[in-house]
Amino acid sequence: MKKDCEIAKNVEIQFLRIIACFFVIVNHTNSVIFKSSDISVTWFISLVYFYISKVAVPIFIMISGYTLLHKEDSWSKTFKRFLRILICLILFSFVYYLNYLGTEQYPTFNILQFFTTIWNKQITTAFWYLYLYMGIILMLPFLQKVSKIMAKKDFHILFAVSLIVFGILPIIEHYFPQLKLCRYFEIPIFTTSICLMFIGEYFYRYFKKNKNVFLLSICICMFMQMFNVVATYYEYIKSNGENYLFFENRNLAPNVITAVCIFYIVFCLKDKIDSLSNSIKKSFIYIGDCTFGIYLLSDLIRAESLWIYKEISAGMYCMFAMLIYQCFVFITGLAIVSLLKLVPGIKKII
Fold it and tell me: Whole-prediction pTM value?
């Protein structure tokens, strides 16, 4: 009975983890299509798919808020959590470093160069999130204390302020530079990432299923994606196909709002998810537990297997070929992580 309760409690979050992890892979692969083609139906389809994937990081951060902000962690536990991510960063960055040896950037093995590199920047595209997450973890005990005393209205105001300052004003400033706000105003305001943590906590405290809000969330998602695509088309025409992806910024309002809506939609589907067999729900939980490891390996897998997409896209529609390739990267990552989880030391950190 206890295990069944745990399944019912965790499966929605695990399902969101799977969605977010897969969208990380989409975000890092799908641009191959629209960046290599002129405006066409395929260009638009690929762009829609790309923009939907921008919800990945906001969803991951909301999950962290949902699972962590209602707690009150000690500094000892915070340090252990920080250390775990730091070890992951160093260990998996080293794996990437070894893979890159012999290239122009890393011609020979140099341990000082390795540590200098990961101190200054991420060694691979996806790892920027590890640095962000370590910063969030370091601030977590403070955020937990703040969250504990916040009323419902406080959450609403925080979301509105963050959305306006970091999600709407940059769009206005992009088209009307003369209205650019002095950047010193932003310094003391909680960033979008911190705001998303509190939105996750808001779901933990106040979520209620509402059919009208559910339908509205679907409509808002569709509208936001349509806005992104239309605005990007305008950017493409204006710039003659150069630097037209201004709206890929995950902190902009269309992407943040879409992520929040998807979070709500999945939670509204709780009854349908709970009606699934325990074996299916256990599969969701297992895969969800593997998503961090899949994320860590995804850049390496896709770098070594891009030839697969090139081979299969020669004989089928490129969007179908890309989807198959993305599933291959995800499933390969899942298989490798499943094996790594058999190693006691590795299991604890991934």
Answer: 0.94
